[in-house]
Amino acid sequence: MKLTLLALAALPAVTAETILGVYIFHRHGDRTPKALAPANLTSLGQEQVYQSGAYYRSRYVASDASSPIYRLSSDVAVANQMTVTSQTDTVLQNSAQAFMQGVYPPVGTVSVEKLANGSSIEGSLNGYQYIPINAVASASSSSNAENNEWLQGGSGCGNAVVSSNNYFSSSEYLSTLKGTQDFYQGLLPVINSTFTSSQASFKNGYTIYDYINVATIHNSTIPSEDLLTNETLHELFWLANAHEWGLAYNETDPIRAVAGATLAGQIVTQLNATLTGKSKQPLGVQFGAYASFLSFFGLAQLPAVSDNFRGIVDYASSMAFELVDTSDAAVTASSYPAAADVSVRFLFANGSAAAHAPVAYPLFGQSETLLPWTTFVAEMGKFAIADTAAWCTACGNSTGVCAQFASGSDSGSGSASATSTSGNGISLPVAGVIGALVTLVVILGVEALVYFVAGLKLVKKSALAASSGPTSELKA
């Protein structure tokens, strides 16, 4: 039931190029089902993200890396060379920790210190490296978002809430709901310990798929297992894909993809900081929800490459954005490349990168997988949300953190404006505090919706309008 993508371009051989920096967005590893809260990272999931981290170490970090990142320490983690973030969620936080242990494993005798009294001491756990994971709470203040089935409830983005819930009144959704009723009812012998007859429908297409998918991975026996033919499992998967795609992206209503838009703003901000800072902080890693992948895929026109980009990415999937110097000159602090000599390459791995090596794909309907930096920024700027003012405008919010932007003063157009500056970079309207607010209010809280595991009921639009809580759906 894996999402298989056609590789348009194998990873190019790295010859006369230097990787100046990388931004990685990563999904968590295998976990227990959402319908049986609390959700927890499994041993399999831990191993998936750890091995993914080990792959990225071999590609970017190790002393013998195939594409070493300029200025990044190869063995001992240096905290100010990287930024690692994750929602305050057990599954995501643990995944981030396991991933970074793959990137920077224990250093053994390198951790031995000689004290003033002449004695020596070795770091605990064979020199285990304690890498800071920046925990960002969601707007819903949930400490374990994976326990909630509908995770975008904390996004707080009013227009995105309305847009995502419009899917439930669309002809596409209603037609599928009606046409698959018998299919889901036929699965009741498999799921009736958790789902009632009224809950067994396309309305809960993702939850039911998730529940059965986890069972097929971990359970030696499943009730009425004979019903789960390959054809049935395939149908479950693609119905879940349709359900999630409809909630994460809509071409005629881009605000539905607010998660991908805000992620795009963060990607450009991080890479721009790497460029302007001459790779002082060349590595950015973020763990987040799979729906952010879907939102970004839609905005970046990746379904034009393959319809499979409309599907749910597998556990431990990742996408990486490489900032590449394409000049033949050696990169040094005194001869750092100009923006005109820098390009960006997009890579995607469906599943753990250790088992499914990342592949380069063209973004924005382009034909090339290596885009000039200025082209990349211009294309991302068409939909990226890079600051709080732009987010508030796009979301139609006027209270809370958005109150200061509600007076009608210049608060942006809802997308990131990126203009060239003198020197090596692209200036963006993003400061440290603003970036923190965007992360707090949007990205890592943007993956959720009005529904909760207990009940799994669809909230009516009238109820949504009356509710003061956020309700749009994007899931991890």
From TrEMBL:
GO terms for molecular function: phosphatase activity. Pfam families: His_Phos_2. The keyword Metal-binding does not apply. Residues 1-16 form the signal peptide. Keywords: Membrane, Signal, Transmembrane, Transmembrane helix. The chain crosses the membrane at residues 430-454. The keyword Cell membrane does not apply. Belongs to the histidine acid phosphatase family. This is Phosphoglycerate mutase-like protein. It comes from Neoarthrinium moseri. The lineage of its organism: Eukaryota, Fungi, Dikarya, Ascomycota, Pezizomycotina.
